[in-house]
Amino acid sequence: MAMTQTTRMWLWISGAVLGLAMAALGAYFLHLGLDRSNQVAGITGPFLSLIGIGLSGVSIAQARGGSSSSAVPNRQSQSSGANSVNIQSTNDINIGNNNKFGNN
Question: Which residue has the higher pLDDT, 101 or 88?
C-alpha cells in the first residue's frame, strides 16, 4: 500500500501533536514536583496501559480482517532450460514444479 500525500501529512500532524502533548505533560510533572507527579503517574498509568492494550487489540483485528482471499497473488515464473520451470507464488507459496526435483 502506497502512502499518499494526505496520509503523510496526517502522520506528521499527529506526531507533532503527540510531541507537544508529551512536552506539556513533562512541564506539568515538573510543576507538580517529584512526589505529587509520582502519585499522578501511579494512578493514571494503569488506565493508559489498558487503553494501549485495547488499541493493540483493535489494530490486530483490523489487520486480520483486512486481508481478503480474493486478492490476486503476486506470481513469478522463470524458465532456465528445456524441462526446467520455477514458479513462485506468494499466497500459497508454491515453489518448483509441484515440488518434483531431479528425474522423477
Answer: 88
